[in-house]
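Example 3.2
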Amino acid sequence: MSMSRPRNAMTVDVEDYFQVSAFERYIGREAWDRKECRVERNVDRILELFDRHAVRGTFFTLGWIAERYPNMVKRLVAQGHELASHGWSHVRVTQQQPDEFRQDIRRTKALLEDISGQAVIGYRAASYSIDASNLWALDALEDSGYRYSSSIYPIRHDLYGMPDAPRFAFRPSGGDFLEFPVTTVRVANRNLPCGGGGWFRFVPYAGMRWAMRRVNNTDKETAIFYFHPWEIDPDQPRQAGLDAKTRFRHYLNLERMEARLERLLGDFDWGRMDEVLYWPALRHPAPESSDVQ
């Protein structure tokens, strides 16, 4: 690894193709066990990809997945990756009452820690669904033993987003608990996404690379990148009856994703969320959440 380049945070949201929020209208959770589950083979491919590039990352994992594939979870931890929580069954925080949310995050944390034998300190909400309407969720996470979240996306989007949130790390309560918003680039007084997911498959690679370099070199900040195991799986079963927007977003450029990831892993240096963001932030305090309403 080149010591002259900043280290960024590589993250994977461990869910399968049929569990994405955009499919909620088409695939009920009661049908999940009848679907062909491809997450284990795809995670193993990701582990091989990361190993080739000597990358260690953070895997935000659904409890539903971990319960069915505990050996997969043990493999990723054994290879030096951070295990973190993605909630139990990909229910958006905007669809949960506070008591439901607390039960969900505590159940998931307990299972992941039981499987891995390690403390789980990180959380990412399904579809970045912590926003101005439910900031109580950050207090619930802290009270439940989590140390950080990466659940806010400071952009405007039809499915999620909190455009007025800070772009970089902040302390919601003024204590040691931290929120790490997904990375955006500031262009013409607007936040544009450059943290991964469907945007990474849609925008030309050179544009995404430019944006992340700007975050590193101009903002002097660590970038957070995320993707899903199903995004490297162009052969996944196709869901019939999708509306045009959902079909476009989900299936766009899946066949190119793995090659783009290869380039990204070579063009930047990467590490785990806890190692490149959480522990350094404790040594160099992030601002409090005065800008978050």
